[in-house]
Amino acid sequence: MTEQAGFRDARYAHAVVKKIESLNQGRETRIVHVCGTHEDTIVQHGVRSLLPKSIKLVAGPGCPVCVCAAQDVDMAIELARQGHIITTFGDMVRVPSTDSSLAKERTSGADVRIVYGVSEAVEIARENPDKEVVFIGIGFETTAPTIALELIRGPPSNYSVFTSLKVIPPAMDLLVNLEGFGVDGFITPGHVSTIIGSNAFQPFAEKTGVPCVVAGFEPLDVLESVRMILVQIEEGRADSENEYTRVVKPEGNLAAQRVIEQAFRVDDAPWRGLGIIEKSGYSIREEFGEHNARLRFEFPEIESVDILPGCRCHEVILGMIGPVDCALFGKRCTIEDPYGPCMVGREGTCRIRFENLE
Q1: DSSP letter string over 76-123?
Q2: Within this chain, do residues 319 and 211 fall inside the same structural domain, yes or no?
Q3: Which of 89, 175, 293, 303 could form a disulfide with 160 if both were Cys (CB 3.0 to 4.6 A apart)?
């Protein structure tokens, strides 16, 4: 049996579910995750159907392109219209802005290129010394180290970064303090935790009294994290525990953390549909200012519209509604023609649901 098969073994899953049922005893419990890959695992493997109906697994803001503010997308589009070479990850190209997208700009002649890593964007800059090359940097703590490392290494003078990087714990704070929302536990993101470590969520758990468990991405990982949260609730404590011990260390990746600290500072940041969240984004430090696209180029005043008329992505991102509760889902908004950002990213709640329609 392979390791992956073990984490998908129905016998083990049923054994964990029985323990969950014994711990839960029919009490209404809302457990929120903030990772699109967790949502993909939950939907693809029918994890919700295995749990007691009293346990609600809620998808929160775990998709980086979904939470990228329309203003940031509009500014990236402006850079493309100025004639610069725009490089970014694939999902970002199709994210709708106020009135366009990078994909639409590309069909109109803009030089927009999909890259699989930031080093590829740096190489494009070296190959085109007479052109400005801008990398649109999106993601959470997971993608920040590689973007930071290229800045530290000293990229070519015609290379710059437009950052729209987000930090997860402040978004969790927002959810806990959202009136009427209610959170009994958090499944914290495995990818992010490989960088910041499971200990990073301990202050949050102590401050809010909400149990946290870092989970991996197999069905049994998710089920076991639910069980671990219920044990904490039963014992009346709130800690940050680590189910994903085969990958995540309590202290995280210290080398990656040092690189992030050297290149970025933590600032307030806009999240699409959620407004400004304090200390929730990475900005480029002043010593790397020559490579900061926000400072390097001029932008006109843009009246950005985060949520287009009829779109309910902001409610989906917050876990207040499910994708099918939006009247546009699967009709006006599809994977082929996304109206809202949650239908674009592979970690988007709407896209995941659409791809797994029965």
Answers
A1: HHHHHHTT-EEEE-HHHHT---SS--HHHHHHTT--EEE-SSHHHHHH
A2: no
A3: 293
Q: Which residue has the tokens 């049996």?
A: 1
- Are residues 327 and 208 part of one domain? no
| Mean pLDDT for all residues in the chain | 95
Largest CA distance in the chain: 67
Q: Tell me the pTM.
A: 0.93
Return the CATH number at 224: 3.40.50.11750
> Are 260 and 304 within 8 A, CB to CB?
no
**Sequence-distant (≥ 6) Cβ neighbours of residue 145 within 8 angstroms:** 195, 253, 256, 259, 260
Task: Tell me the per-residue pLDDT of 44-69, one tens digit each, with 9 for 90 and over.
Answer: 999 999 999 999 999 999 999 999 99
d(CA 182, CA 199): 23
Mark whether 131 and 79 lie in a shared domain.
yes
Structural domain boundaries, residue 178:
3-63+169-242
pLDDT computed for residue 3 by the predictor: 58
Q: Residue 9: what pLDDT? A: 83
Amino acid occupying residue 47? V
